[in-house]
Design brief:
With about 450 residues, this protein is of the alpha+beta class. The chain has 13 helices and 19 strands. The structure holds adenosine-5'-triphosphate. The site of adenosine-5'-triphosphate has 17 residues, from helix 2 and strand 2. Belongs to the tRNA(Ile)-lysidine synthase family.
Amino acid sequence: MLTPDTKPDLLDRLFSDLDLSTGAVAAVSGGSDSTALLLLLKDHLDRTAPATRLLAVTVDHGLRPDSASEARLVQRFCVERGIAHRILSWHGDKPATGLPAAAREARYRLLAEAADAEGIKLILTGHTADDQAETVLMRQARDDDGRGLAGMAPATLHDWRTWIVRPLLGTRRAALREMLRARDISWIEDPTNIDIRFERPRVRAKLGQGDGERRMAEALARSEQAALERLDIGRRAATLIDAFADRPVPGLIRLDRGFAAHQDGEAALYALRILLAAVGGMSFLADEARCVALLSRLRSAPLCATLSRTVVDARRTGIFLRRENRNLPAALPPSNNQLWDNRRRITLKDGPGGLVIAPLGSAAARQASVSEDVPQSVARAALAAEPALWRGAERLDFTGGDTGPQAISMVPVVAPFARFLPSFDLAPAVAVAALVGAPLPPAPPFHGHDGERGWAKA
Ligand SMILES: Nc1ncnc2c1ncn2[C@@H]1O[C@H](COP(=O)(O)OP(=O)(O)OP(=O)(O)O)[C@@H](O)[C@H]1O
């Protein structure tokens, strides 16, 4: 446990696993945990690698009257210690519902942009064991499918490019605060952290009473177990995806019929949930109970069903998955780093140049040449829902790529993990990436433990 007189080598263990070669962005709100993170990291770097670039970033969400002055306090704190610091403000529209989730998305986007601008590949946050226990208890209360009980992953890949790491996830908040007090350092108390109108502060308050310590220890033990299980089932699902799935034409996944009858039914179920989300362009895995029913029907008869925006067409020759042809995005000019239908990432070097992206459509798909070993109607229906670039009525290269002076790419993504990929799910994410033609994700930023953390395949 961390105490004020904790030996440097023990402290260093928090960071010694990390590949800090491109530098680090520390996400610092000014609260106790992220202030402690910044100080510990600075100490570690001063001792072990003083030339490493360290940038502290504070996001001003503009949601509380004091947020701007608090950000400036953090700035002063950093300047006094010779730490580079930036304040980034969340401008865009603030939604009336789902505000915390929108704030979180914006925060990570801004942090990733700051890292990108400096060529830094790593963001560190101050999430603690206390945060982890709260997260697990909240998810448990929601009758989660069990995956969520793993809590926060030690690392999460943002936008398939920047790793967010949580080095303090095994450290208690009280220990960090003790360390700060011993150094005579104060921190900002965010009033929303004790506002019991919100769920997390309510859970936090309960953990501070009576048998709170025991409940916290139980929640942490449960999350460790759930994390191991999630890694394990992810690896088994990845093995099945590798063995049973291929992509005969863009937008179409074929599963060998043996997939549905595989003896590792649990892994087949997990693989199916991931594949349905990937094909349908969904951020969430397909519903577990409905997939159980679907898998069992797939074992016996031919069928055609729709789940998670994906048409499941099971025939004698295979189980075919394709994006349903409803509710596809309307024709729109492409914009940079946009996710199209949550299935393609658009990268635009110049302006849209009068181009629009729209589904290929069935008329054009009918003219496409399709390999003989796939049912033609199925292949064409899949192609019709794929994105194409148009200039007026003229269709350009429908798979994207360079279009004359315009450089546009429309690279496949692994929908459920395109924005956030928890390290727990790395193995199936890599398997689906290889399947749909998405680039492989960057390896997690840990020395020597890649296999253990799920980077088992690439
Ligand atoms: N406004 C912000 N600017 C930069 N980073 C932030 C901001 N808000 C949160 N974070 C990062 O996310 C982590 C978890 O956020 P959370 O909201 O749980 O913490 P907090 O109460 O704001 O502050 P702390 O974790 O520092 O006590 C923080 O430790 C910090 O690394």
